[in-house]
Design brief:
Keywords: Cholesterol metabolism, FAD, Flavoprotein, Isomerase, Lipid metabolism, Oxidoreductase, Steroid metabolism, Sterol metabolism. The chain is of the alpha/beta class and 526 residues long. The protein has eleven helices and 18 strands. Strands 1, 2, 6, 7, 8, 9 and 18 form a seven-stranded mixed beta sheet that branches. A six-stranded antiparallel beta sheet has the order 5-11-12-13-10-16, covered by helices on one side. The chain has a three-stranded mixed beta sheet with strand order 3-4-17, with no helix packed on it. Strand 11 and strand 12 form a beta hairpin. It binds flavin-N7 protonated-adenine dinucleotide.
């Protein structure tokens, strides 16, 4: 099997395995392969490169979440967030802005490299995870394989048989996907909120389905029994889980580091990429301290460059390189094809007798699957609202089949996104159509108090699922090789064309597995 060649065998004089120990200090720190970012795409790339015997450097702008704070915990809870919660903010910016219109959710905090970032554009904010593990540190763990027919529609050039036969199963196994025991689900107080939402869906004649997870349900049951520290049952999720969650630092990244071939640098942000005259890649980085100050700038070189900075991070590096002229041959479609996976959040008010429970697990396990409805395809997850008191709210994250797409570009020194309010309105109309039916069938109404003032029913100005910007088969070939340049790869959510109909991390992981399997076999010296 031909494998990725190390830089030395490529004859790239700047790239030498011994360079780190050379007597004469070199201006550039070299590795055969560099991976930018340690989310799903980056973690898969790092593991598979390392297993192929290729020394790999992973550069991650966030911190490693492996050290306990003064309270003995690595992460803080959603109920009492502190500086660990958000990426350099003076106040938290939680998705649910208010309760009973009161500003009781967010807290003033000390700016710090916290785990959740909210990247604000004109009409859309994008939540992303920061740290070793990327989005896996903050997400809801829902591990959903997309409907095969929709996957095939979105990725017409990808062999769906191979994906569903090989790469989705490989991804699910590595991620540690498991499902809730239906009998426990039916009996535990912790999922009363979901059973109440299911009842409303069933009264409407809608289909509901269990959603798999990477949260360890065996651990959750011990939490419920009181034999282990609580995490999902202790209001931990968007600011990290101290227990129970199989985040990437416990799966792919642990395996990658275990090979001995991976070096991981944290708090080091890649700011620019360019190509040297000998064909090697050059990366400029800035190392951040805990105040966000750049304390050191560095250059790294590599033969093979894998971009796993996420839809925003990867696309920013590429559009910036094209705009500044360092990578002029990038395809015109780099930056295009971006979408928020049709995300809309909303709440419904239940009748007094339809309680949701004071105890709520933070990990969703069920969705309303109306994707097959040709008039209005929507998949809506039943989300928790764990306030610790009965609140009668059924909360949902709707994923709508919104065909609108936007473009990311680099203007005046920063990333901008062309997404408009009118494009969000398309998602809202679809969510409203579904939930108007549910309200009509149950004689219920929407909640008006959850997304700030003035009363906003549909939260359409933020998303959790940024997708696209470097779409597979358009900005790259069918395996994530960036068009116009050799030995440059995208392995993350940038590849997904704006919408995938379900929560995206299983798809991102499986596509990255497919890319790595191909690249490690085929890509040899130019
Ligand atoms: P991602 O995981 O975002 O990782 C990118 C990494 O690269 C991050 O660690 C960045 O800090 C780092 N980075 C970026 N730029 C640079 C740079 N220039 N230099 C160095 N490092 C850089 O990318 N998805 C699901 O499937 N199920 C869920 O239940 C779910 N819930 C979610 C809940 C929340 C609150 C959020 C924010 C997301 C959720 N998602 C969920 C989305 C999912 O986490 C997301 O699609 C993936 O994390 C994207 O994976 P990537 O590999 O693209």
């Amino acid at each position: 099997m031909a494998a990725l060649q190390t830089a030395a065998t490529l004859g790239l004089t700047r790239i030498s395995l011994a360079s780190a120990h050379a007597e004469e200090p070199e201006p550039v720190d070299n590795s055969p392969a560099i991976v930018v970012g340690s989310g799903y795409g980056g973690a898969v790339a790092a593991l598979r490169l390392a297993q192929a015997g290729i020394r790999t450097l992973v550069l991650e702008m966030g911190r490693a979440w492996n050290t306990a704070g003064p309270d003995g915990k690595v992460f803080c809870t959603t109920a009492s967030p502190d500086k660990r919660s958000m990426w350099f903010r003076a106040r938290t910016e939680a998705p649910l802005a208010s309760f009973l219109w009161l500003d009781v959710v967010n807290r003033d905090i000390t700016p710090y490299p916290g785990v959740l970032d909210r990247v604000r554009f004109a009409n859309m904010s994008v939540y992303v995870g920061r740290g070793v593990g990327g989005g896996s540190l903050v997400n809801g763990s829902m591990a959903v394989t997309p409907l095969r027919s929709y996957f095939a529609e979105q990725f017409p050039t990808v062999d769906a048989t191979e994906m569903y036969g090989t790469y989705f199963p490989r991804a699910r196994a590595m991620l540690g996907v498991n499902s809730i025991d239906p009998a426990w689900f039916e009996s535990t107080d912790w999922y009363r909120f979901t059973r109440t939402a299911r009842k409303a869906a069933q009264r409407t004649g809608l289909r509901t389905t269990f959603v798999p997870s990477v949260y360890d349900f065996a651990y959750m049951r011990k939490e419920a029994a009181g034999t282990v520290p609580r995490s999902a049952l202790g209001q931990e999720v968007i600011y990290g889980n101290n227990h129970g969650k199989r985040s990437l630092d416990k799966t792919y990244l642990a395996a990658a580091l275990g090979t001995g071939n991976v070096t991981l640098h944290t708090m080091e942000k890649v700011t620019a990429i360019s190509r040297a005259s000998d064909g090697s890649w050059v990366l400029e980085t800035g190392r951040l301290d805990d105040t966000g100050t750049v304390v050191e700038t560095k250059q790294y070189g590599c033969a093979y460059l894998f971009l796993g900075g996420g839809s925003l991070g990867t696309t920013e590096l590429l559009v910036r390189a094209r705009q500044s002229g360092t990578l002029p041959a990038l395809d015109a479609s780099v930056g295009a094809g971006w979408g928020p996976n049709g995300n809309v959040m909303l709440g419904r008010a239940n009748h007094l007798w339809d309680t949701t429970g004071a105890d709520q697990s933070t990990m969703p396990v069920m969705g309303i699957d109306d994707w097959a409805n040709p008039d209005n395809p929507v998949f809506a997850e039943m989300a928790p609202l764990p306030t610790g008191l009965e609140n009668w709210v059924s909360l949902y994250l709707a994923i709508t089949k919104n065909p609108e797409r936007a473009t990311l570009s680099y203007d005046n020194g920063s990333l901008s996104l062309s997404w408009s309010a009118a494009q969000s309105a398309v998602s809202v109309a679809m969510a409203k159509k579904l939930f108007d039916r549910i309200n009509a069938a149950n004689s219920t109404i929407y909640r008006y108090d959850l997304f700030g003032t003035p009363s906003k029913v549909f939260a359409d100005d933020f998303c959790y699922h940024p997708l696209g910007g470097c779409v597979l088969g358009k900005a790259t070939d069918d395996y994530g090789r960036v068009k116009g340049y050799s030995r440059l790869y995208v392995t993350d959510s940038s590849l997904v064309p704006g919408n995938i109909g379900v929560n995206p991390f299983v798809t991102i992981t499986a596509l990255a597995e497919r890319t790595m399997a191909r690249v490690l076999v085929e890509d040899t010296a130019p």
